[in-house]
Amino acid sequence: MTQPAPTIGIIANPASGRDLRRLTATAGLYSSTDKASTIQRLLAAFGATGIAQVLLPSDMTGIAAAVLKASQGPVAQDQRWPTLEILDLPLTQTVADTRLATRHMVDRGVAMIAVLGGDGTHKAVAAEAGDVPLLTLSTGTNNAFPELREATSAGLAGGLQASGRVPAGIGLRRNKRLLVRVPEQGVCEWALVEVAVSPQRFIGARALSRSEDLTEVFACFAEPHAIGLSALCGLWCPVSRLDPHGAWVHLDPHAQHTLLTPLAPGLLQGCGIGASGRLEPGIAYPLSLACGTLALDGEREIEFAEHDTPTVTLDANGPLTVDVEAVLAYAARHHLLAVPRDHRRLAATLC
């Protein structure tokens, strides 16, 4: 019996890449036009790999409208883009829009969700996606979780994976996460990259990008080339995405060692490293501060006081993501992208 062609969802956060750090640092702007162009490159790749339909939520910045217009043009017809359905969902211009769109896509049975955004966007999608795999694309400010890659190659990998041409054991990766619990408040949240502890007692501006606002950082993974709070671990005690453990650092302005760290694009600060170590899975780590705020994936979300006992725990139950490099390596070994000489795309290039 022939399996129906798969459907893929695409979620592009209109606000990603446009936050306060454009003023406090020299981060670039990822515009709505850029995001619409990225989606069009995804659609070309999805069409080439047999994806039948794509779901895209509406927005107030013109992303969906631009993509819809392009999908009706000659290039889309020639490349046989998937059928595009715009989801007309209520909009609040908050993270609730991302969560609602994700739930709707899951209910529709999508094989995968492509996400355009930063760490916060990916965390919001992952919270609702369950075991639906994510194809991650970086369009935010501090992007540690979504790796920077060209949408065309990512789309080819996502299309091959979603259409079942690559075994899940090869093309999908289960990620780590950090569970944050504050029993006294009934809070149980999680982060995809890092949890930072700040002595500031109130949330205020959510983004953290000053060394004096930090006391300690817990990281699922920390790569030396990262930008953002996880770079504190990445440049001192790096740990890979595939390692079972994580890392932590304790900051001390009077420490013997000061680490020059890119806390945001173009923003380098000296951070005193007082102590560091491995974050072992399954262990609930207490905080060194009696009160303050917790930032999950770069943004402060939780306040805690003297009577609270917050903990951070590493586990391996994070979201599934497409391993683009592994999928394309498998495709190369098995010639999955080989086409006959008279294939319409090849014929067009030879004319």
Summarize the structure.
The chain has helices at residues 21-24, 32-48, 63-71, 74-79, 95-107, 119-129, 151-162, 168-171, 231-234, 324-334, 344-350, and strands at residues 7-12, 53-57, 83-87, 112-117, 134-138, 172-174, 177-182, 187-191, 194-198, 216-219, 246-251, 257-264, 267-279, 284-286, 292-296, 299-304, 311-315, 320-322. It is built from eleven helices and 18 strands.
Mean pLDDT: 91
> Helix coverage percent of residues?
25-40%
Task: Give the overall silhouette.
Answer: elongated
N-end to C-end Cα span: 38 Å
**Rg for CA atoms:** 21 Å
Main pleated-sheet profile: 7 strands, antiparallel
Features of this protein?
disordered C terminus; alpha+beta; seven-stranded antiparallel β-sheet; elongated; 18 strands; single chain; 11 helices; 28% strand; 351 residues
Description:
The protein is α+β, with helices and mostly antiparallel strands and 351 residues long. Helix content is 28%, strand content 28%. The protein is built from 11 helices and 18 strands.
